Amino acid sequence: MATATLPTPTTTAAAQRTGTRTIKVEIKRQATPDAAARTEKFEIPYRPGMNITSVLGEIAAEPITADGRETTAIAYDANCLEEICGSCAMLINGKARMACSALVDKLREGDEPITLAPLSKFPVVRDLAVDRSVLFQNLKAVKAWVPIDGSYELGPAPRQFPQIQEQRYPLSNCISCTICMEVCPQFNDSTNFVGAATIAQVKLFNMDPSGAVLKEERLRALAGDGGVQECGMAQNCVAACPKQLPLIEAISDVSRDVVFQQVKDLFAR
Amino acid sequence: MATTPRIIVVGGGLAGLSSVIKIAEAGGKVDLFSIVPVKRSHSVCAQGGINAAKNLKGEGDDVLKHFDDTVYGGDFLANQTPIKNMTAMGPAIIDLLDRMGVPFNRTPEGLLDFRRFGGTLYHRTAFAGATTGQQLLYALDEQVRRHESEGKVTKYEGWEFLSAVLDDNGVCRGISAMDLRSMEVRTFPADAIILCTGGIGAIFGKSTNSVVCTGSAQAALYQQGAYYANGEFIQVHPTAIPGEDKLRLMSESARGEGGRVWVPRDKNDKRVAKSIPEGERWYFLEEWYPKYGNLVPRDVATRAIHKIVYEHGMGIDGQPMVYLDLTHIDRATLNRKLEGILEIYEKFVGDDPRDVPMKIFPGMHYTMGGLWVDFNQMTNIPGVFAAGEADYSIHGANRLGANSLLSCIYGGFVAGPNAMNYAKALPAQAGDGGHSAEFSRQTQLNQQLLSSTGSENPFKLWRELGDTMTRHATIIRYNAGLAEADAKIVELQSRYKNLNLSDKSQWANTSFAFARQLANMLELSRVVVQGAACRDESRGAHYKPDFPERNDAQFLKTTKVSYVDHAPRIEWEDVDISHIQPRPRNYAATA
Ligand SMILES: Cc1cc2nc3c(=O)[nH]c(=O)nc-3n(C[C@H](O)[C@H](O)[C@H](O)COP(=O)(O)OP(=O)(O)OC[C@H]3O[C@@H](n4cnc5c(N)ncnc54)[C@H](O)[C@@H]3O)c2cc1C
Ligand code: FES
């Protein structure tokens, strides 16, 4: 009986080099956060079904540029390779998207090179890897959690109708990729806008029966400078979100709640 | 003893985060290390759900049935006491996750909904759409972020664990780790450490696992004296989508919701799947296993698909693939319960599985083996605990679907408090506790690697490793093939000495970090291969055609492997069967 039981990793790139079709890729590179950026061109063997992360893996196994110069493997973030961990956001042909779900066959037009660059609104670490920790800071600032009493046994949670779950679940699908922030014209140093992802999480936790206990604090956190009112309704976020989060709806719901809270706070003074 | 115990948790998947929560609540200080930001840990990939016998469907399910299903599903190889404890804790864990805000699917009455999974006849799996792991990880991540904002937890994301720091008595006093940006190596003090570093898929090249699941941390500890147990038990999931770079999982929940596996009865049938009439389809799992049908345990389903393809020659179009069909289920139900995984298929294959049967084949998925731990989750190195996929407990020779998420949380909940108790009783260290010695050992290793001037590319060596492991150490194993694999690994180890790092820079150098992991992956691969070679029987996921029966007289034993003279040394340990007497495992029976 055959012992070759599973599809195995592909053979070496060198063996494939003899094949006919290749893919041209141009990658914007930067050795350190302060170094100048430069572009390197690659031509690598084509295989059906390739995605951008496998293109980058191919370069790591054969770090040679199109003009035959030895170079280094490209730095980039990736983990799950199935668009659920949120690691691999970058600019592909100028568009912010996830590299693991970007299929080469759908990206190429004729023999045009595919271009790769790091997200533009976050500090570059190296090559295509950027520092997106600002999102995690924002989640802290809005207390995006349910403040449970403790992890000891306290019996079941309150009942929740399926209709509530069906509204919460899509918001909880946010993979923290930061694409909504990258494409937002308001997300920049002058506004300090928190961005759509954080606002959507505020809606998610305010809807939770127990999470709602922090609702007012969350709304106040989004009331000031950089808060929800910075949104200019360009709606780029909802178009670019790889997980199709209902971001516009979340932003308008939270905006309304923030205004309501502000009015309430005004009278409470 | 320090006034406030200081615990290091390595790994921020479900197991790591669960232990962090318990320690923070008990007043300990935690340093949490993870290669990736914890929210991007592999646990996000889990799709189908998490088991607990809540019995909300009026079926008379209870925790003892869950216990029995797990022991039987694991072919009696797992110690029974921890399984009993885990299954007993299951319902409380689900309640807790629900309180944390996990958007579990609901019944019209507002209660938790449950689906069926493999290896059981009960609806026992709670789920949040088809992205349960993501939802659970986020819930724990949020709780840890809360503890972080209260100063109880310090995160070191983008740091890689390299080794434990051991004092002269072999007691753990901290870890050494490397900053993956500055490439700086440092040691960190701790009274106890908990390793929750997940799976080992990368040693098989392509698998359903995430990129960082290399097993490197477990392998480093094994080389420092920790036992690695039952390494030969590797779960190959029956339904993965063969991919160019990865084998993407098609969750068992697809079958739990009614998905059916079939091939055309006529192997030359070239018609499109949907036009093949019912009578001309062969639902081989339903025919061979009438009681469990498509929901037999994974090892059984995997071997059946393998048999259809390689013995009957009946793969679709002569390819190694069979159909997994959901098209008889209405779209609304599919969207409500399975959308996440259907989208993966749509995105990466291009067909809509609501209209077209999916084409799937088995893929390497999970390691039942891992670091040996006692019933308190402590390894044989004092002060080193382990939990989650990285430890060997609970699943025996085969893991049941949706039991891993439960075992990760259970393991963390046991390891956390036990690490605290251990730390409180720990005598003060003598001298520097081994920190400077470990620091120089690690910096030397780095120096060696950076000054290596050979010709071998680490990524290419890795591909060869993956080829070999997949060919010889997955579904079907022969002793000759395993010997060949071991020889190949030794060859790769010698070629590793001749490495060429194209990148010698000291900033975010991914080739360098990978090369360090690769050395450990090679050591771990030998543990898997030699464990399989020594076990001349078939049990759960370990199948040898030359020894097709389970042999309790000789092999109802845990394989324990230690690192002696740079090679695996194997010994055996009795299994705890104090609750359920082993019986033959036969899912084909109809009664
Ligand atoms: C596609 C897929 C679907 C699955 N679906 C299910 C399911 O439905 N139900 C179920 O029960 N199980 C499922 N499983 C299994 C389950 O997801 C895993 O077993 C489980 O998530 C493992 O969790 P963990 O906490 O042990 O490790 P992981 O979640 O893998 O986390 C490991 C952590 O360790 C860190 N780490 C690793 N090495 C180092 C190092 N050297 N230094 C520092 N940090 C390190 C990583 O950064 C990460 O944070 C599935 C698995 C896969 C692959
Ligand atoms: S690698 Fe996880 S989203 Fe792309």
Description:
The complex is a heterodimer of chains A (269) and B (591). Chain A has 269 residues and is an alpha+beta fold. Chain A has two domains: 118 residues, Ubiquitin-like (UB roll), CATH 3.10.20.30; 129 residues, Fumarate Reductase Iron-sulfur Protein, Chain B, domain 2 (Orthogonal Bundle). Helix content of chain A is 33%, strand content 12%. Chain A is built from ten helices and seven strands. A five-stranded mixed sheet of chain A has the order 2-1-5-3-4. In chain A, helix 5 runs antiparallel to helix 7 and helix 7 crosses helix 10. Chain A is elongated and about 70 Å long. Chain A starts with 12 loop residues before the first helix and ends with a helix. Chain B is an alpha+beta fold. The relative contact order of chain B is 0.17. Chain B has three domains: 285 residues, FAD/NAD(P)-binding domain; 128 residues, Succinate dehydrogenase/fumarate reductase flavoprotein, catalytic domain (Flavocytochrome C3, Chain A, domain 1, Alpha-Beta Complex); 121 residues, Fumarate reductase/succinate dehydrogenase flavoprotein-like, C-terminal domain (Methane Monooxygenase Hydroxylase, Chain G, domain 1, Up-down Bundle). In chain B, helix 1 runs parallel beside helix 10 and helix 12 runs parallel beside helix 14. Helices cover 36% and strands 18% of the residues of chain B. The longest helix of chain B is centred in the last third of the chain and has 25 residues. A six-stranded antiparallel sheet of chain B has the order 13-12-17-16-14-15. Chain B starts with 5 loop residues before the first strand and ends in a 17-residue tail after the last strand. Flavin-adenine dinucleotide (FAD) binds next to helix 1, strand 2, helix 4, strand 7 and helix 5 of chain B.
